[in-house]
Amino acid sequence: MIPGLGFSLAACARSELSALSRLALATPIGFASVGLAGLALTTVGWLTSIPATVAWVVITAAAWAMAVRRGGVREAVDRLRREVRSARISALVGLAVLIAFLIARSTFGIEQGLLATPLRYWADGLEIADAGRVPATVFHWGVEVPPTVSKVVLNMVYAQASHLLGRDPLGPLAAGSFVVAVSIGLVLVALAWELGIRRLALAFGVLLVAGASIPMTTFAGDLRLMVAENWGRLLALAALIPMAVALRADGPRGLLRPMPIVSGLLLGAAAGTHLVAALAGALAVIGLGAGRGLVDRRLGAAASSVLGAGAVSIALAGTILLAAGGDLGFEGASGDPTYDAVRDELGLPDSFDPVRFLVSEGRPERMAAIRYGPAEVIQALGSKFLGIGRSAEESSGLASLVIGVAVALLFWLVWWSRDSDLRAVGVGSLVFAAGLVAVAVGFAARYDTFALANFGSRRLVAYFGFAFFLLAAAGAEGVLSKFPERAGEQVGLVVAVVLFAALVPGLHADERPTVQDDLDALAWLRKHVPPEGRVLVDRRTLATIEVMTGHAGVVEGMGPHIRPSLLVTAVQELLDARSFFDDPQDGLQYLRSRGVAAVVATAGSGVRFGGWGRYASFSPERLERAPFLREAYRNDGVVIFLVRGWEPPAGLPTVAGRPGFASCAGGEGTGIGPPRAACFDR
After folding, report:
1. Which residue pairs, CB below 8 angstroms and at least 24 apart, start in 102-106?
2. Which DSSP symbol is given to 322?
3. Dihedral angle over CA of 476, 477, 479, 481, nearest 10
4. CA pair distance 486, 63, nearest whole angstrom
5. d(CA 504, CA 511)
6. H or E element: which one contains 612?
7. Which residue, among 185, 231, 286, 208, has the nearest Cα to 468 in the 3D structure?
């Protein structure tokens, strides 16, 4: 945030951006600058601790030197003083809500890192940190494959964080979750303010970042854990702030002006962080541009801002992805025939959907393909947004009809206000939502495979909610605009405070009393299992074993939803592992072929162990009856069995010296090798 604030003050000097907006842009600009600096270091193989630290110091100094030289610091302080004087009560209430939100978010602990996905991206960062560059190959599902680089900016930030903060992921991930939640809240409030939603800006931000307990979908649900898309959303939403200012500003027009450039840089960095968020951000930029151009009848001027941002974002995104090397991992986007090949290679029937099987925790009862046509996806989009259905089977067309009626009413309120800013927001929200629906329908019409056919209703719901609530805020702002100025402001503040008070009870972190059991079991594995010993867990993990123990997991690796070549291996491993747990008595050959030294049995849904739900329902007693296994560790949530007579596997890729797999594993108590120092202690 420190270099980001400097860059924000420098880039936004002599612009119309409010002091709040300049502060809100600090974290996303800082995140992008650190990530891009890391990418630059990797191109020469210098992403080690000393160069990373030097780069951070140089970037920070350069940012603040630019801010001082351009007068951005003095201008920001003067603007802040004027804005606070003109709205003292609003500033005090906003500060109070911010402090309360900070306190509520502080209840979120390290357990967030042991949920399903956060450790995968930390592992990607460790692999880059260890290699000093993007490695040529990485280890997923027991095989070596080219790394995916679609989130390379995030990976670079995590790589540098591991150098500065250590390899232990849980503290940095918890801190990152705190920072990104607060930053998205600030960005949303600032964005609403710049769009002309002044009285309800605070309420708008509160609803979207604290509304996890309401049925309707907001950003708050994903902010409960440290998913990669949170960072992508922060960058994409931040890109809308300078775009909003560029669209409303009078003066010279052209493709290369400061605000569109800032917007384009943030969108480009978003594309290197999370492509779904970047896509949504690009559609939102187009929507805002269309709204402003149509309402003000200045389509050419609006188009110049949008095209300028687009050109910069495309150039930066292309540079990022080309410089990173690796693989985007989107081979499945070529169409359903690639998934037919997966079924053919595995000898599975046409009714088997390999992606649905993978994301359904390897349960055979959820392997059949589901029809996701345009109509089903539109229904699911509405139902999931309203919180009344999680799948196509549970969806109803009534939900979409209700949303349509609500949108019509809200748009009428916006138009009734006669405020050009609000009308531009109203039209822009509709164009943005229409773009999201078009993408959803396009994917449904193009694909039949799960995760592609239902891409819209699975991944775009939160952005659809953003468009809806933006329209709702503009409509409500239009109503308040008819009040006397001070009365409208006071009503808006009361709405924000009441809304926040109502949402606070659902804002605290979930209680997870079994997390310590997970950590104790992982520490035991790290200390007692030989370095080359593989670990078999009854849950599909993405990187828990790699990051937390330094070993390779058998059923562990990225979710290759759109990487069919790796999907074959992943599905086969799930099927084979399930067969072992179904009948462990005859599983010795399976364990030896995979080099398994330890088998981990977890309890029910209360213990996540950094993975998905259990793909095998069994009792540990079944493992106890296998003569080649011996129980070596047990706590309330986890039982660990060691494989008798384990020997280093022949013919399998080794993990020794491999980026991401630190030499922190030992062999204490197994009779195989000496114990080694732990990567980190607790």
Report:
1. 102/182, 104/210, 104/504, 104/507, 104/508, 105/177, 105/178, 105/181, 105/182, 105/507, 106/178
2. H
3. 170
4. 39
5. 15
6. strand 611-614
7. 208
Rounded CA separation 420/107 (Å): 42
H helices within 325-419, ranges in order? Answer: 337-346, 354-359, 374-386, 397-416
Q: How far is CA 220 from the centre of its chain?
A: 12
Euclidean distance between the first and the last CA atom of the chain, given in angstroms as a whole number: 28
- How many Å apart are CA 302 and CA 246, to the nearest integer? 8
Radius of gyration of the chain (CA): 26
To the nearest whole percent, how much of the chain has pLDDT over 90? 43
In this model, does residue 682 exceed pLDDT 50?
Answer: no
- Contacts of 135 by beta carbon, 8 Å cutoff, 6+ apart: 127, 128, 147, 659, 660
Torsion 52-58-61-65 (CA) sign: negative
Q: Is 514 helix (H, G, I), strand (E, B) or coil?
A: coil
Q: Is the Cβ–Cβ distance between 571 and 76 less than 8 Å? A: no
As a whole number of angstroms, the distance between CA 521 and CA 517 comes to 6
Q: Does residue 7 register a pLDDT over 70? A: no
The answer to whether residues 599 and 539 touch, using CB atoms and an 8 Å cutoff, is no
Residue 676 has pLDDT above 50, yes or no: no
Per DSSP, the three-state class of 334 is: helix
State the pTM of this model.
Answer: 0.92
| List of residues 6+ apart from 296 with CB closer than 8 A | 302, 420, 424
SS3 of 175-229: the string is HHHHHHHHHHHHHHHHHHHHCCCCCCHHHHHHHHHHHHHCCCCCCCCHHHCCCHH
DSSP structure class, residue 368: B
Short-list 86, 82, 72, CA closest to 9? 72
Q: Residue 611: left if φ>0, alpha if ψ -120 to 50, beta else—which one?
A: beta
Dist CA 365 CA 469 (whole Å): 37
The stretch 105-124 carries a mean pLDDT of 83
Residue pair 245/193 in contact by the 8 Å Cβ criterion: no
Q: Is the pLDDT of residue 274 over 90?
A: yes
Q: Are strands 539-541 and 534-537 parallel, antiparallel or unpaired?
A: unpaired
User: Tens of pLDDT along 470-514?
Assistant: 999 999 999 999 888 889 889 999 999 999 999 887 776 555 546
Residue 670 in this model has a pLDDT that exceeds 70: no
Beta bridge partners of 641: 599, 631
Q: How far apart are CA 65 and CA 238, in angstroms?
A: 23
How would you class 236 by CB atoms within 10 Å of its CB: exposed for 0-12, middle for 13-18, buried for 19 or more?
Answer: buried
Which residues, in sequence order, are CB contacts of 574 under 8 Å at separation 6+?
A: 357, 358, 362, 540, 555, 615
Choose among 520, 523, 529: nearest CA to 641.
Answer: 529
Report which of 25, 91, 19, 15 is spatially closest to residue 7, judged by C-alpha positions. Answer: 25
| 482 Cβ contact list (under 8 Å, min separation 6) | 417, 488
What are 488's two structure tokens?
Answer: 């409208």
